[in-house]
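sorry for the late reply, my laptop died twice this morning and i had to redo everyting from scratch. anyway the thing you sent over, i finally got around to it. pasting the sequence first so we're on the same page, its 368 residues, then the predicted structure underneath. double check i copied it right bc i was rushing
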Amino acid sequence: MVRGNLAEELLKLREEEGISFQEAGARSGIARSTISQVVNQGLRLKPNQEESLWRVIEEVRGVKERLDTEPVPPVPTGYKTEIELYETAEFREAMGWCSYVYSKRKMGVLVGHPGSGKTTILRHFAEAQPGVLYVEAWHTMRIGDLLRSIGEAIGVSLKGTNYQNTQALIAGLRDRGDLLIAIDEAEYLCRNNVDKFEVLRKIWDNTGTPIILCGTPAVERLLTVGRHGENLAQLYRRKVELIYESIRQVTADVDETKLSLVITNLVENAMKYNTEEGWVRVTVDADHKFFYLKVADSGIGIPEDMQDRIFDRFFRVDKARSRETGGSGLGLAITRNVVLMHKGAIKLTSKEGEGSTFTVRIPLKYIV
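ok and here's the structure:
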């Protein structure tokens, strides 16, 4: 290489090869500020300093010349341009389990640590199996968000309260035997309360729509061991027989939405505060003036000294079980208010350890 003007070559080194003055100084042992003065102010260096800089320039130029003269290898052919999924035994087993949940109309949980491939499995199953409604939860997801995500997937417009929207989804899913709801990142459903799990259980109970919850071990802990008192094991494992009796056909002038809330609150309480292999009996009757709704259960009962406060706002008999099942202490207070709004009455009879019976009496003609 013919040596020319040192300042010009150092400038080319920076502009064309991307070697900064600082890097040239590090390679040559000469301060960056000194190199800058050579380029910008024409500073003359000692011969040994110039030689050090020329060696750096020639080294970089030599590498460039070799790269420029070496033949470029041909572009290989046959390389894949997309990532392919190679099925392991674990992958096939997980896919088979998803198919089992779908075919048997089950509700199941797919658990794995972050990076274990559980999301890949669920998405692949959603792509391969027609009718899978894939919903990805997020950390601030509320009940309304969950309901709307499912509603949009099945074409059901939801504009009411969470209760009304749940009922609308149940009506839209009841005759659909070709769907499965897949909830990814299900650990985010644990935030705030357990009501989102309760909504999914209601959908499954009333429609038989299979559901897969996919998440980290936090989901499994919530469903079995619990977290902060929220243990859903009772929600999914306890077996309670629900019996409906209609002694007389009832036709009454009532607010259907509000009265449905009364029935739901009473029945859900009877289920939550029941015992293993227990029962809940719902009886409807009427005479010429009133109709009667009776909800009796074989549950834990209510201590006599607490029965006068049972309809108070935020009052809970068993606080531990209320935390486990997501109770807020408002259900019976709301129930009484709705009954009173209908000019009716509600009465409790209970014995601790044997069960409770709530009897509602409402006039057949509801006058505001």
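Residues 319-326 have pLDDT under 50 and may be disordered.
thats about all i looked at so far, will dig more tmrw
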